[in-house]
Structures are given as structure tokens and as C-alpha cells.
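Entry 14. Ran structure prediction on the chain below.
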Amino acid sequence: MIHSTWGLIIASGKEEQLASGVDVAFLNIGSRPALAYSLDAYETCPDIDGVVVVVARERMESVKTMAQMMGFTKVRSIVSGMARRLTSTGAGLPALPESATLVSVHQVSRPMVTPDLIAETVKSAKRYGSGVAAVKAAAPIREAKGQTVDKVLNRTVIWEVLTPQTYRRDLLEKAVQKASKSKKEFEEESEVVGLLKEKIHLVPSSPTNIRVATPEELTLAAALARM
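Output, C-alpha cells:
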């Protein structure tokens, strides 16, 4: 089967803000806004045919201007997002063309994503239906009640799930629709795809694929960008 893969970049919602409530997407990392790093990675990844950006309504024109000024020709649609990540994903899916068969979801708060990592998740999704960037737990993990250790967990089988996450479009749409009917609040896409009893295939990611959620992490991202 010949696939057409589109990126769905989530730049709206509480998860994409610093603790201060400032949108990460428009904070500068070095000389460029954080959003530009993700757009650049998707622009240069040969497996990506087009990109939809989901952003707060008042920022839509800013994204359009950024894409035009920086030459991000794969940005084909900019849509208004929601307060939560999964509702933003749901808002972005209808903007995809009918030809799109795979969807690569990425948080703008992970600006150090690389074209190679995107491509690896796409490769996995073509073969298995899913490809989720993840890193193995690097330190001993403990489950605690308050500040008291309750259980020792085996870190050799524990992974931290990141983005990009690439799925067959039909699978992701079905999962998001099912999650929207649930009273539970879900955190991310692999969790809702799991509702369909589908196996989630992990793709090892570099630890530098950090999430910027604090001023300290913004400083770290700037240092990584200089490298």
C-alpha cells in the first residue's frame, strides 16, 4: 500500500505552556521560535507530505506569517485548538486531506525532534499501524504513597512515551472518537489507541528529545540548539 503521511503539530493547550502560562510555541530558542524547530524537522523529513498546525485561535495568523517567512511550504492548514492535547488532536484530524493515510502527531513543546526520528516512527506505522517515540527509564523507579516508597518497579521494562507518535489515520480517528465518549481524561494518543486493544509499537528516541515545560528546560533546549 502506498501511504501519504501528514504531520499534526499540536501548539495549543495547557500541555504546550510553561508553568507561567506562556505558550511555548512562540518563545525563542536561540534565534527562532520553538514552533519553527518542529516545523523545520517536518519540512525536511522526506516522509512527510503536509502539515496541519493546531494553535490557539488568536495565534493562527502568527503561524501563517511564520510559515511564509521561513519557507515552510508543507504547512497546508492552520486550525484552532482546544485546552487539552487530545481535543486538539481531534480538532486537527478533519483538516487532513482524504489522501492522508498516516498521521504523525507531535507536541510543539518538544522542539528538538529530528527528521530521522519522525521517519522512524513513520516506518514503524507503515509496518505495524503505530510508531511511538519513547525512551527507556534511565534511573531506578519507585512507586510512592506521598513521600514513602510503596513499590519497587522494574525500570528495564518501563518506557517514557514522547512524541512524535505516528498512526494509521483510521486507527487514530477511531481511538480519538472513542475517547471523546468516555468520562475519563486521557493524556496522550497512545493511551487512547490502547483502548482499541491495539499493540503500541515503540521507537527508541534520543534523550535530547526533551519537553519544554519550565524555564530551566527552555534554557536546556537553547543549549541543545547551539550544539
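The mean pLDDT is 94. Will compare against last week's run tomorrow.
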